[in-house]
Amino acid sequence: MKRIGRQGIAFESPDLIHVVVRGEVSLEEIRELIAFIKEAIAGSPYLLLLGDLSAFQELAPGVRRVAMELSRSLPYRGVALIGGSVHGKVIAKLLLNALNLFTQRDTPIRFFATEAEAYAWLLERRRVLTAKPDR
């Protein structure tokens, strides 16, 4: 797992990004995380995201705005989140629902108690997406 500031990120070919969010996420960390994702999934028709929010604390409003702007071009098609406080889950859900609205994509967002459950759901999501010719 690569470290970007306090955050961790990894790519699992062909389409899965695993992010571990720790503490308050800075503007620079958001920019670097999204740049990593864009490079990793270049050429992939969609992106599946596994996010660990267990140690997440905050995403300042200005950082949220930049995250939205930079994330609009990412082809999210499934997001599985584990852990996190109620506050963290609300922020994640609001951000991802806004992305769904702006991009007009069907990107389900699910919360799980364990990484194994989240990963299993993402594998099933991948199977569904690869079975659909229109993705």
Question: What can you see in these coordinates?
Answer:
This protein is α/β, with parallel strands linked by helices and 135 residues long. It has a single domain, classed as Transcription Regulator spoIIAA. The protein is 44% helix and 30% strand. Strands 1-2-3-4-5-6 form a six-stranded mixed sheet, with helices on both faces. A hairpin with a 2-residue loop joins strand 1 and strand 2. Helix 1 runs parallel beside helix 2 (61-71). The protein is globular, with a radius of gyration of 14 Å.
Low-confidence stretches: none
Order of strands, main sheet, comes to 1-2-3-4-5-6
The quaternary state of the protein chains shown equals single chain
Instruction: Give the second-level CATH assignment, the architecture.
Output: 2-Layer Sandwich
CATH class: Alpha Beta
Number of strands: 6
Mean of all residue-level pLDDT scores: 89
> Would you tell me which CATH topology applies?
Transcription Regulator spoIIAA
Please identify the structural class as seen in this structure.
alpha/beta
Terminal residue distance: 28 Å
**Tell me about the biggest sheet?**
6 strands, mixed
Level of helix content? 40-55%
Task: Figure out the total of helices.
Answer: 4
